[in-house]
Amino acid sequence: MSPETTKPILKVTGLVKRFGGFSALDGLSFHVAPGEILGLVGPNGSGKTTAINVISGLYAPDGGEVVFDGASIGGTASHRLVHSGINRTFQVPKPFMSLTVSENIKVALAYGRPAVAPPTVAELLAEYRLADVADRPASELNSAQQKMLDLTRALATRPRLLLLDELAAGLNPAELDWIAGRIKALAASGIAIIVVEHLMGFIEHITDRVIVLNAGKEIFEGKLAAAVKEPQVIEVFLGGEHAA
Fold first, then answer.
1. Exposure string (b/e) for 173-211, b if CB count within 10 Å is 16 or more?
2. Residue 242 has pLDDT above 50, yes or no
3. CATH superfamily of 34-58+77-241
4. Which of 118, 131, 169, 213 is most buried when burial is the number of CB atoms within 10 A of its CB?
5. What pTM does this model have?
């Protein structure tokens, strides 16, 4: 069943998040279905990461509603959401730096969604090109390896909704092609995926739809190929790069 005909697993309605007098999110609404890859794009400060932070429980919303699998989850703590099937990566990876790669994954496996049989450490290490560094402390990994460990830890908890915050940043072209294939495979397995990213070529390659944000509000929803033809989108975000 395609994402277009599948009931959404996540619905965000009228979401508001304020920091003092600044509204980082100002009435944002969208949804994502199992097996769908949704991109959140927009200029710096448009609310992309704030949206991820609210959905993942890092921030409580100041208005609106976040509904996951029929339950309102706004303000629910991150560790509880992991057990429900929501996990994420971070712009700056946050593994346990003093633990080895394998130990990081074992912690995540022990803490994941209990209703689903977990993958093995060996499977995850092999799948995400970390087998050769399995016994090294996370602090010794390069940036790309830390990103893969961040992703692997999230996947070890068996998420139904995966939030990827600039996972592709800093990867070389070969790594981008490879991780794009992995993300598509995860979606094909039924995981709903929200991707925050600045690399438009990468976004265009992997997403089913995009939401373009500006000042905490949606200004476009649809295919990226259509977004780049919208004057408002070009003006606030894409500029001359995609205007032709």
1. eeebeebbebbeebbeeebbbbbbbeebebbbbbbbbbb
2. no
3. P-loop containing nucleotide triphosphate hydrolases (3.40.50.300)
4. 213
5. 0.92
